Fold FecR family protein.
Amino acid sequence: MSSSSATVREEAQYWLLRMSSGEAGVEDEKALEAWLARSEQHRRQFIELQQLWQELDHLPESAWLESEVAAPKLRPWLPLALAASLAAVMLTATLLWQNLSGLPSPASQWHYATQIAEHRSVSLEDGSALELGARSRLSVEFDADQRRVLLQGGEVFFDVVQDRQRPFLIDVGVGTVRVLGTAFSIHRQGDQITVAVLRGQVAVSRGSHEESLSAGQRLKLSQTELYRLEDYQLDQIASWREGRRVFRDSPLAEVVADLNRYSPVPILIADTRLASQRVTGAFDNFADVPAVLEAIELSLPARVTRTSERVLLGAP
């Protein structure tokens, strides 16, 4: 199985657990529908995983997607009472999946996600600590040789315990972050990645290009480039953990993308000319969406229009 196929399998596992947790909402269903529609491989992996768990007698047939239906139409999801048994069988299903495919079995695997405006602290089995920002999701897999994380989106602060026998690797889609023991923050919005180091050192690679970062240093990573950013003061790195957000000459589109992780309704830029407007400033309570929008309206040539379903940023 290729690394791409393994990633799709991990994402399928994440979605089945997420939708079976009893906490998924309408936005989750829409996101899953979009993921299923993205490729036939996504849908096939999802259905195969469902069928595997069905064979393990943990799920009723009413929970499954129709494998014969071409369009990704969702069936009703499992009640909360079944979520615990589904989570408990995750490791068994993963081991069986790997054994059937001839791959070595991982020792441990977990999936984590947060909702709008939610922060979550996680302790890993090696003693490393994670803090997930709003609307973040990732998968963790440990085996005897390495510790690997797939960051699918959002923002996460890592405080990694050193283990020279098992490197800690973070797959961010367009590159990899490698670390032995340090504290740092990663922000992923699509294929736009920002890495900032609080303590220790990390190596960030994209293809054959690799950059090392030390405390206070930051870089930006995308499908086409990898470059250093202006250094941060240490107290500004991962300041989002305390609700504070600092922007330096950031495009408004980037600020709005972050703000959408805290807003119960989508915030859209109606005038494309506004998207590239630069924003510099610090917000002490970024989760206070109305206050942030007011500050944007006062500092930029922008007008905020609110409806019950969305917020529009347009020209004044």
